[in-house]
Structure formats: C-alpha cells, structure tokens
Design a protein that fits this description.
This is histidine kinase. It is an enzyme of class 2 (transferase). The protein has 11 helices and 7 strands. The protein is an alpha+beta fold. Among the domains are: 6-139, no CATH class; 322-430, Heat Shock Protein 90 (2-Layer Sandwich). The strands form 2 sheets. It has a 5-stranded mixed sheet with strand order 3-4-5-7-6, with helices on one face. A two-stranded antiparallel sheet has the order 1-2. Helix 1 runs antiparallel to helix 2, helix 3 packs parallel to helix 5 (108-125) and helix 5 runs antiparallel to helix 7 (162-265).
Length: 430
C-alpha cells in the first residue's frame, strides 16, 4: 500500500482563516509607511504567496517529511523578518495553525513553544525599524536622545539640561521595552489560546469522524444481525418441524408396519396399534400447524421435564417393544431453554434409534453437577461413523441447540459398537 507524502488540507474552515490572515498581511504590507506612497512590494508578495501555496497540501506519513516542511516554513518566516515585513507575528500564527494539523496531539505543546521561540528570535535578530530601513538602503535613524549624536553646544551658549534629557531618554527606553515585553506576553497568550481553540476544533472533527464510523458499523451490524436473525429463525422452525414432525411420523410409520404384521394373527392387537397410529397422526398434524405458524414455544405442553421424558420413553416402548432405562437427576425450577433443549435432544436421539439403530437396550441419564447438567444417551445398536453423518439435520440440530446455550456436544460411536450422545450444558444450581 502506497503512503501519500502530502494530503489535502483536512479542515477547510482553518484554510479559509489562513487566507483571511494572508489578506490582512498583504493589506498591511502595501499600506503607506515612513511618508511613502502606496507601493507594491513584490518580494513581500512572493513570501506571502509561497506560504499560502504551502498550506494547500500538508505533509502526511513520515515524521521526517513533516519536520522538513516545518523547517521550510521557518526559513520563509526568517526571510520575511529580514526583508522588513511588519506582520511576522501573523505569519507565525498561520504557521502555528498549520503545524497543529501536521503534528499529532502529543507534539502540539512543543510546536507552540517552537513558534513562540521563532517569533522572538526573528524579531530580536531583525528589529523592524532597523531591518526595514537597512533592506531599503536607507541610513539608520539618528536617535536625538543619544548623547553621542546630539549636537555640541557653541562655546558661548549655555549648557543644555543634560540631566533632564537623560531622564527622558531612559523613560522612553523603559516605555519601549515595557511595550515590547507586553506585546510579547500578549502574543504568547494568543498562541496558547489558539492552541486550545484548534485542539477543540480538531477534537470535534475527530469525534464526528468516529461517530460516523460508529454509525456505519451500527448499520452494518444491524443488517448483519437482521440477516442472522432471519437465518436463525428459519433454522429454528426447521428444527422444530424436524424434531416434532419427524418423531411423530417415525412412530406413526412403525405403528402402521406393526399393524400390518398383526392384522392376520392378532386382529385385536392390530386394532390397538392402529388406534395408537391414529393418535400419532393427529399429533403430527397438530405439530405441523404449530410449527408453520411458529407457535411451538413450549413443546413440553406445560409438563415438567421428568414427566415429558417418561412419556417419550413410553411412546418409544410402544413402537420398539423396549423401554429406555431413565436415570434422571434434575434440579427443580430448571430454566425453560435448558429444559426444551434436553427434551429435544432426547426426542431426536430416540427417533434416530427407532429408525436406524435396531438397539435392544437404551439408557437415558441426566446428572446435575455443580456447574453443568450432563446428559448421556446410550444404545447398543448398530452404531455409525460420526464423521460421515455429522451433516444430518437431526445431529446438526442437536449440536446447535447445545451450542446456543454455550454448552458442549459430543457423539461417540462406531460401526457395530452402539452410540453414545454426550451433552454438557452450563447451569449453576441455586
């Protein structure tokens, strides 16, 4: 990725303020002084133009580039002081605002101190009156209060009041020095105030940018959550249809097969099986209606989990002629999501055993540990290779239910070795 050495001015408002200050500098520089007529000083115009053009593209990236850019501006400031420009202070203010954008927050106090030192050095090395007249080729002014320059009195004239003139010169010098240092203090206060102002502007700009990024992320997350929510809801409905309808239809099919076998040798028994098959068909129809309308919020039908599991075991016995051995250690007031998950896993496991396992022994065990509820479903059927059957919707549904509760799910099985389903669900016993 290529890094740009220069960037556009990030704050148009500060750029416009720079242009206004440059216009003020130019207006002052071309204004009459020392009794001269209005004149256009091309060197002054060139200095202002160079500084203005440097502000259109600010350095970015490496610190060395930013330092060199600031040094170049410093040289231009010294040149402005040398040629006699009157508003070196305003040029320093412009460079200061620009430097706040070039350097990070951790460097801004140093930048303020550096610009202040630049102003002091420039105005000390090149005082305005002397540098202005010297650059224009004019002789220095004669200080009438200087004892070496004042005219010598004639021999017959009375001596001038030397003491009074000396006191006046000292007072004038003190006033000038006081004004100078007062202006320097004022300039320092302006620089510090400007730093606080620019810090506030940049902080607001950064806050707006971060807010825009946060809003964009929120919109992205909202769309993603909506898509995930729709996907999860579709998966939930699919699991409900598979778990409830699949179990009922499997049991119905087994009852019908048994009824066909018993119809010739035990008609009465066959009739009982057909009545049970009819009941299972009604349950399947009810499950379809509830699942399609997504009203299947409580598959336990207001029963406690223990009763619902024993009911599943009784239904399994009617279809398979064996009754699962149930060892249930369930805590009271089990949360509804955990109870439904355990019920659905047992229901799906018994359905798969009925369809594929040909087992002669089934064990359903639930243990309540200090921090988890452990579910084990074991059969001695034909078994299977889990890696070849993990894409089945039933197994996938069981795994998703457990993972949705931050639990762990495992299947241990092999060909002709039965199957063991292990689910561990976090639960803190009160």
């Amino acid at each position: 990725m290529q890094i740009e050495l220069f960037m556009r001015h990030p704050l148009r408002s500060l750029l416009y303020i720079e242009w206004i200050l440059f216009a003020v500098v130019m207006a002052i520089e071309v204004s009459p002084r020392d009794g001269q007529m209005l004149e256009l000083k091309w060197l002054h115009v060139g200095i202002v133009a160079v500084l203005a053009l440097m502000g259109l593209r600010l350095p970015a990236g490496k610190l060395l580039v930013r330092v060199l850019f600031t040094i170049a501006q410093t040289i231009v400031i010294f040149l402005a002081a040398y040629v006699g420009m009157r508003q070196v202070g305003l040029l320093c203010v412009i460079v200061l605002m620009r430097s706040y954008l070039v350097f990070g927050r951790q460097y801004r106090l140093w930048v303020t101190g550096g610009i202040f030192a630049l102003y002091l050095i420039a105005t000390t090395l090149f005082p305005y009156r002397q540098r202005s007249r010297a650059f224009r080729g004019l002789p220095p002014r004669t200080n009438i209060t200087n004892g070496n320059s004042r005219p010598q009195p004639s021999p017959g004239a009375s001596a001038p009041p030397v003491d009074r003139q000396g006191e006046s010169a000292q007072e004038t010098r003190r006033e000038r020095d006081g004004f100078k240092w007062g202006f320097v203090s004022l300039f320092a206060g302006i620089l510090l105030s400007l730093q606080l102002l620019v810090d506030r502007i940049l902080a607001e700009k950064q806050a707006k940018e971060e807010l825009a990024i946060a809003n964009q992320r929120i919109r992205t997350y909202a769309l993603r959550a909506q898509e995930n929510g729709s996907l999860q809801e579709r998966n939930r409905i699919a699991r409900e249809i598979h778990d409830s309808l699949g179990h009922s239809l499997t049991a119905l099919n087994l009852h019908l097969e048994m009824a066909v076998k018993l119809s010739q040798i035990q008609p009465e028994k066959s009739r009982e099986v057909l009545l049970e098959a009819k009941r299972l068909g009604s349950i399947a129809l009810k499950d379809v209606r509830e699942s399609v309308s997504t009203l299947r919020s409580d598959p336990l039908h207001n029963q406690d989990l223990t009763t619902a599991i024993y009911k599943l075991a009784d239904e399994f016995k009617l279809s398979n002629q064996i009754r699962p051995a149930c060892y249930l250690d369930l805590p009271p007031n089990l949360p509804q999501p955990i109870a439904i998950t355990i019920y659905r896993i047992i229901q799906e496991a018994l359905t798969n055993i009925s369809k594929y396992a040909r087992a002669t022994e089934v064990i359903v065990e639930i243990r309540t540990e200090p921090t988890t509820i452990e579910l084990n479903i074991i059969d001695n059927g034909r078994g299977f290779i889990p890696d070849n059957n993990m894409c089945g919707f039933g197994i996938q549904g069981m795994r998703e239910r457990v993972l949705s509760l931050q639990g762990e799910f495992e299947i241990i099985s092999d060909t002709d070795s039965g199957c063991q389903i292990i689910a561990s669900i976090p639960f803190v016993k009160e």
